[in-house]
Amino acid sequence: MASVLAIVFRFLKQPPILAYILTGIILGPIGLIHIESEELLKTMAEFGITFLLFMLGLELKLKELKSTGRTALILGFGQIGLTTIIGVGICLLLGFSLVTSFYIGLALTLSSTIIVVKLLSDKKDLNSLYGKLSIGLLLVQDFVAILALIFLAGLSANTSFSYLSFLEVIIKAVLLFVVVGYLSQYIVPKLIDKIANSTELLFLFSIAWAFGIAALVSSPWIGFSIEIGGFLAGIALANSMEHLQIVARIRPLRDFFVTIFFVMLGMEMSFTNVGSILFPALLLSTFVLVGSPIIVMTILGLLGYRKRVSFFTGLIVAQVSEFSLILIFLGSKLGHVSEEIISLITIVSIVTFVVSTYMIMNSNKLYKHLKKYLSFFEFRKTDQEDIELVQEFDDHTILIGANRTGQAILDTIKKSQNNIVVVDFDPDVITMLEKKEAICIFGDIADSDIQQKVNLDRAKLVISTVSDIHDNLILIDSVRVKNKRVKIIVLANNQREADHLYKAGAHYVVIPHLSSGVHIAEFIKENKLHTPNKS
Fold first, then answer.
1. What's the CA gap between 128 and 121, in Å, rounded?
2. Cβ distance 46 to 52 under 8 Å?
3. How confident is the model at residue 229 (pLDDT cuts 50, 70, 90)?
4. Which of 48, 202, 215, 265 is the most exposed place for a label (fewest CB within 10 A)?
5. pLDDT digits (tens, 9 = 90+) for 375-430
6. % the chain with pLDDT above 70
7. Closest alpha carbon to 395 in 481, 487, 455, 458
8. pLDDT single digits (tens) 78-123
9. Dist CA 326 CA 48 (whole Å)
């Protein structure tokens, strides 16, 4: 059932998590099929969370914070703090207890890393400025989520929040991280190297390690949950050279057991009191879909970012995370929140997953309609975004994107002409160009201010190495309005996209894989490499 519904949701461009939750609702509250082994499924659901956190520990990359650094930290902690405070306030006004309000408020701050990264990848925006800010923000969220889960996992069921229990959990957590850090640096990598040549043994060891550490950590004298044990086991393996191979092997297991976790969440939903939670669910969903993006846009505006970057980054947080569901699930196990809250957060997750997916996928259209109202969030300019060109250009070339293909074009053109301006919204690329003393500007060519700075109306040639068809169509439209004599060269992924771009007004469209194939074929033909060697 989960498989069939996931296929349907794929056609609807919705995340499969929704299909799994709906499967659980059909099996549980609706009860179309009677499930005999619910206890076994609950155990498998715990395996799912354990594998999910194990993989998170393996893949946690703090180096990715480097490209956004201070901004990501300010944005992350600012968004978490403000969203939690406002979320708790809303819940208290709705009549929830302080502990329940805190759980809900924290759950509303977290955004789905899995869904966001997939959508950014589909849009080819992972290396854009807003993409890097979003990844940095999600990393900070994941860190806070893990800290919250570690603290809660250190409490026994129905334990009250006392200073003594808090201190005890902190001490145990610090000791665990010290031990795991030592293992990951000096013991585990050497052990992994000895068995890495056998993929079967590496796979078996990885599972044994994950559940061995989970069993140890969840023992009575340590007192954490097996899920946190899985996370610590992942961190211990993260420094090994073979961690990517382990990730590839474990991912199918994670996907299988996590599916069962989300099915179980759907099964545990209760619709007997749906009337009492429907209004809170819709109110909290509205806060996540509208309030959270406004909080992010405000913080980025205060940091000096333009409205387009702020708006696109704000849309990223307009849904709750799989960690939100795990947090509430764990709180229910500890007796801190009722099963009614599981139903409440599950409804919020369904609503926000559906709406935010369409919002992110159609972000360009949304921005086009809303941009005149978003100037309110531009409070000041950053040093990077306030770059002015050192000279007025006329009859010049504008290169959009200087990574890979763009870099090769730039190096070639610079040999014959100097009047070339590069526009890129990847901070790393701008840093590289500045070292080469290239004339570059940090920003998005779709921004009218950037178009004015690069004198788009006086350019003779515009070259876009961005392969996203929507971005290129917007570019062509802007260029044709401002400068009808300019020549436009763009990239496409296939012949169908190339036809669309030609119809829109592009003068030349490059399909990289097709061009490289033709180039290789010409090389083979010229050097007669296809002729059999008769000697």
1. 11
2. no
3. confident
4. 215
5. 787 775 544 444 444 456 677 888 888 877 778 888 887 776 778 888 887 767 77
6. 89
7. 458
8. 999 999 999 999 999 999 988 889 999 999 998 887 778 777 777 7
9. 10
Give CA separation, 211 vs 204, 240, 246, 399, in Å. 11, 18, 15, 52
**Contact residues for 44 (Cβ-Cβ < 8 A; gap 6+):** 257, 260, 261
Distance (Å, rounded) from C-alpha 301 to C-alpha 292? 14
pLDDT tens profile 20-64: 989 988 887 777 777 788 789 888 988 888 888 888 888 765 555
Locate tokens 């939690």: which residue?
A: 84
Nearest to 378 by CA among 440, 298, 462, 435: 298
Give the model's pLDDT for residue 217.
84
SS3 of 370-429: the string is HHHHHHHHCCCCCCCCCCCCCCCCCCCEEEECCCCHHHHHHHHHCCCCCCEEEEECCHHH
- Calpha distance 68→502 (Å, rounded): 37
Give the Cα separation of 265 and 330 in Å (integer). Answer: 12
Query: In this structure, is the dihedral angle defined by the CA atoms of residues 66, 69, 73 and 79, taken in order, positive or negative?
Result: negative
Give the Cα separation of 301 and 296 in Å (integer): 8
Cβ(433)–Cβ(441) under 8 Å?
Answer: no
Does the reported pTM lie above 0.85?
Answer: no
Structure tokens at 495: 């012949």
- Catalogue all structural domains in the chain, each as residue range(s) with its CATH number: 2-28+46-267+278-377 (1.20.1530.20), 397-526 (3.40.50.720)
Length of the chain: 535
